[in-house]
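# step 3/5: fold
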Amino acid sequence: MIKEITLPDLGEGIDGAEVSEIPVSPGDTVSPDDTILVLESDKASMEIPSEVSGTISEILISSGDEVITGQLLLKIEVADGPEKGEQIKEEVVTPEPQPKDDPAETQKTAPQLETQPSSNKGVFASPGVRRLSRELGINLDSINGSGPKGRITKDDLHAYIKLQMVMSSGPLPRVKKEIDFSTWGNVEVEKLTRVNKITGERLQQAWQEIPHVTQYGDADITELENLRKNLKDDGAKKGVKVTFLPLLMKAVALVLKEMPKFNSSLDHTGQNLIIKSYYHIGIAVDTPTGLTVPVVKDVDKKGILDLSKELMDVSEKARGNKLNPDDMSGGTFTISSLGGIGGTNFSPIVNPPEVAIMGVSKSEWKPVYDQKTKEFTARYIMPFSISYDHRVVDGAYAAAFSERFSQVLNDIKIFKE
């Protein structure tokens, strides 16, 4: 029989992806869990495995194509199963239909795109781009493609839509003047990775849309460092590396429970606050292709060694470009740690739809005046910062969060419970 392989639901907020690699060819034999397709979405790179044993009979997509949930990708001839010739499809989770806007209201408020009917014949574009252009009534003949051989990409289509919206609402943005930097010496052009470009666009959008404020603080982690050393020895026996990060995650989860506004999101209207009773912490990881933020789920329910092991696993997956959509979704708060590199303080940008992010810098031994002994003693001090969405969190609440976080880190009894 022939088994049709369709694109499954890729997870929260991911409607489709770009085909980056097809490691199989017609006639190849595959087994369950063999990679048959590599996709790249706006959140991560992911491998699509085969769920059956058989022979690739037909491949219906090409490298560079944009594919969407439910789209037929390829066919596998399976030896056992229903009668010959009978076809089956993989079960696909169909997203719930979203309520449609009132057409009359939409006509009043939506920017009018400059469109005209066209068959788009002779235009080099993926099926996904063609489908979207048809849905929006956009003539692809009027768009200059930036892809190989003039191929029109999804980014080209989005850029065209944004341009039309700007033209309908106000003056055009200033066009940047091209500069030939080689005039003054030798240069090297290095193309941004897809992750670099997506991260840059999201950070710029977050910075423009969210009123950022950053609260700075520091914490005495002298006793916590001693505890970490003991845990490090315990972890070494199990092959687990224990850093400060899991301790910080546990402390953050505790404070989030006490101050729930930091564990919330504004809804799509911006009028309601969604308070979450789960504590999923995103951890910024630097990879060869750019910054990614895998999410560790239910931090409040896990021990330090368990969190350490999970951090090792997700960091390895991130650097190997093997994170899946579930690894990247559901975060309620993010920690960006530069403690292993250096620096004193920095202002991280909030990771939407979250409302706050913590930045951790390198800890140092400093002289601290002891009121009881009336002497200076050496203490291990960790600087940190919290950037937050001022629409949700005010300055006093942020200062209280910072102070409480410092108190938790200075009370090691909390980490022994």
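# step 4/5: annotate
Residues 2-89 form a domain with the OB fold (Dihydrolipoamide Acetyltransferase, E2P) fold (CATH 2.40.50.100).
# step 5/5: archive (pending)
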